[in-house]
Amino acid sequence: MRYISTRGTAPALDFQQVTLAGLASDGGLYLPESWPTLSTETIAAMRGMSYVDTAVTVMAPFVAGVLSDDELRALCTEAYGRFSHAAVTPLVQLDQRHWLLELFHGPTLAFKDVALQLLGLLFERFLSGSGKHVTIVGATSGDTGSAAIDALAGREGVDVFMLHPKGRVSDVQRRQMTTVLAPNIHNIAIDGSFDDAQALVKAMFNSPDFSGRFALSAVNSINWARLMAQVVYYFYAAVRLGAPERPVAFSVPTGNFGDVFAGYVAAKMGLPVAKLIVATNVNDILHRALADGDYSQGTVVPTPSPSMDIQVSSNFERLLFDLGGRDGIALAAQMAGFESSKAMRLTNAQREGAAGLFGSDRIDLDDMALAMRWACEKSGEVIDPHTAIGLAAARRADLGDVPVVTLATAHPAKFDDAVERATGVRPTLPARIGDLFERQERYDSLPGTFDAVTAYIAERAVSTR
């Protein structure tokens, strides 16, 4: 399997190279040269499989030429052995039509663990014995940072510099990052929003002077391996609800478009996905883009669902590339226009290509709270604000008798104040991290400027020169 850049000029890479590279050298994102497909017989055979065996079946085409099935199985067995539920990503029924796919049984209580536990092992495997050193630079709106830090803390050959927007993540999210005191972990709280942090990361990758001094890599969903691992749970859930004979819809709370793009990949591989509902909060650039073709950046509004407080959705570029005929030169020009003006219109081909599979909705604070209350009172399920946005959009969608799976992306205890306000129930952290608020924190606060952040990293990272 070879991977190409959405912007058309970076060299094609294999799976190992694309995992270590993260962002493409031309500023684009990597995608497979072509989509592998699974037969209906192969999909049907997943019904009785474990999560690990499902993962091997789904991911094997993407790692072809780099990892054998047995090697991939060993990595998945280790990665998902740390999850607290035997099903890894269990389904929970809410009523006759609605289901939750619980993605928060990993070590940091968020869906990011599903991908990052595996990605940490991939980094270790690819770097082992090579003498190479990788500098991970990432931005987080809350959950990516803690999941990446847990997966990479103490691993040889890797330093992690994680940027988070100061005061704009929950206390639990912050502490899950800043109480990891491993010497290769560096937490940076910057003044500004997640979009500002994400822009700094992209600028570092795109600066020849800075990136040329360090072997930079990424754990954000700009890294293809992250998305690949997330494709698995769409298959795992759908076959338990009747696929491939029965289509299934998914409602995905998203800001950066990575999690829902994984659903798009599943559909391209042959999974019968009836609809992918893109559920946004009031930071609704994705809803506006899909509903009206208007992809224009607004001002980030802080909300009780901070992981979705985003106005620039990095992974949307992958969809635009695939829907636009995979014309990297045209997309590079389109994205350059957006980066300079902060606004762009989707082309007719992009809009028409998205219309069949994607729906979208914008959920405000009142509807978010109502969804949390409904789940608690009608089904006995306590859900976090992000999941509530997905559930509110799912319940408003008119999909007939198609089962709708809402991705439950975080444990409710990560957002205990918001949950308690909506439901009267204060969720508690699982015993395995129950001492989180007693642990020592360590992080540095910096201005959200390129010079300040790069100077900080340069003092601490391992130079390749």
From TrEMBL:
Record PTM N6-(pyridoxal phosphate)lysine, positions in chain: 112
Needed co-factor(s): pyridoxal 5'-phosphate
Gene Ontology MF, one: pyridoxal phosphate binding
EC numbers for this chain: 4.2.3.1
Domain Tryptophan synthase beta chain-like PALP: 86-324
InterPro entries: Ser/Thr_deHydtase_PyrdxlP-BS, Thr_synth_N, Thr_synth_N_sf, Thr_synthase-like, Threonine_Synthase, TrpB-like_PALP, TrpB-like_PALP_sf
Source domain of life: Bacteria
Class of the enzyme per the UniProt entry, highest EC level: lyase
Catalyzed reactions per annotation: O-phospho-L-homoserine + H2O = L-threonine + phosphate
Keyword Amino-acid biosynthesis: yes
Pathway named in the protein's UniProt entry: Amino-acid biosynthesis; L-threonine biosynthesis; L-threonine from L-aspartate: step 5/5
Keywords of the record: Amino-acid biosynthesis, Lyase, Pyridoxal phosphate, Threonine biosynthesis
One annotated GO biological process: threonine biosynthetic process
Span of domain Threonine synthase N-terminal: 2-80
Family: Belongs to the threonine synthase family.
The protein, known as: Threonine synthase
Lineage: Bacteria, Pseudomonadati, Pseudomonadota, Alphaproteobacteria, Sphingomonadales
